[in-house]
Write a structure and sequence with these properties.
This protein is α+β, with helices and mostly antiparallel strands. 20% of the residues lie in helices and 32% in strands.
Length: 284
């Protein structure tokens, strides 16, 4: 599903004109087929006719990426408007750098975009990009002030006794070794971290748990290192996890996904105020 907000230039225009302009590979035939199947919604109302749109209408399309964009090249856009893009990054690719996900997205959109945060190479899930520098500055400030909430899902080895808990510890980043260390007590060079987890599912047979994780502080490798530190390593994590456990489950990549992003502005967001309260999620 893709969701797009109608820009002022399409005010009073027909739905087909808006969608055909927005999606490079969408054919008129595919558009009318989607209408017949009621796979298009305007302001959460299913439509079966080529309706007239108003500025700021929310249009949702339940059409495959291949029909919308042609060959996707591992780019999956979850939400897009004139100022931001939220995409579902796969594992095995960096957010920034040479041949990065940012490069792929820019080629895909034929437009410059700016990542507002990062995910580890082998962590999949939602990444927020700005389409212009003004939006980038606002969103970076919102991340800094914890006004954008990211929720992760992690599959770990072991079953916590406490079904939810706020973990407090201290983290040191060794830049040369590209690894972090966790301490329960404050030490020189260590910074305080807070990680909240909640048990979602338990598999007693495999001795595994699915956790929902919220970072109250956002440091490098925080989730992976902190969960391993308390005895619940993420399955597939080759750096902080257990190699024997990873072999047992046949996993070479950490089972960690950024699956939910919500804008929770408590201070002025300028022209991005329309995003306040918006929740964007993917299915895992």
């Amino acid at each position: 599903m893709k969701e797009i907000i109608v820009s002022p230039k399409y005010n009073g225009k027909k739905l087909n004109n808006f969608l055909l302009d927005t999606f490079s590979s969408l054919s008129l035939n595919a558009f009318y087929k989607a209408l017949r199947k009621k796979d298009i919604r305007v302001n959460d109302v299913k439509v079966s006719e080529n309706v007239t749109l108003n500025a700021n209408d929310h249009v949702k399309v339940f059409i495959s990426d291949e029909q919308l964009f042609g060959k996707t090249n591992n780019v999956e856009i979850i939400y897009e408007d004139d100022n931001i893009v939220v995409a579902n990054k796969p594992t095995g690719i960096e957010v920034t750098g040479e041949n990065s996900y940012t490069d792929l997205l820019q080629k895909y959109l034929n437009k410059s975009v700016f990542p507002c945060h990062r995910l580890d190479r082998n962590t999949c899930g939602l990444v927020l990009f700005a389409k212009n520098e003004e939006s980038l500055n606002i969103l970076l400030d919102k991340f800094k002030n914890r006004e954008i909430k990211k929720i992760y899902r992690a599959r770990v080895y072991g079953i916590p006794k406490e079904k939810e808990k706020l973990l407090n510890a201290y983290l040191f980043k060794d830049k040369k070794k590209s690894i972090v260390y966790i301490s329960d007590a404050p030490k020189k060079g260590y910074v305080k971290i807070q990680t909240y987890y909640k048990v979602i599912e338990v598999n007693k047979k495999d001795n595994t748990s699915l956790l929902e994780v919220n970072l109250l502080t956002g440091k490098t490798h925080q989730i992976r290192a902190h969960l391993a530190h308390i005895g619940f390593p993420i399955i597939g994590d080759g750096k902080y996890g257990d190699n024997e456990i990873n072999k047992k489950f046949g996993k070479k990549v950490q089972e960690l996904c950024s699956f939910s992003l919500q804008f929770k502005f408590s201070t002025d967001a300028g022209y991005l105020e329309y995003l306040n309260g918006k929740l964007i999620k993917i299915k895992i």
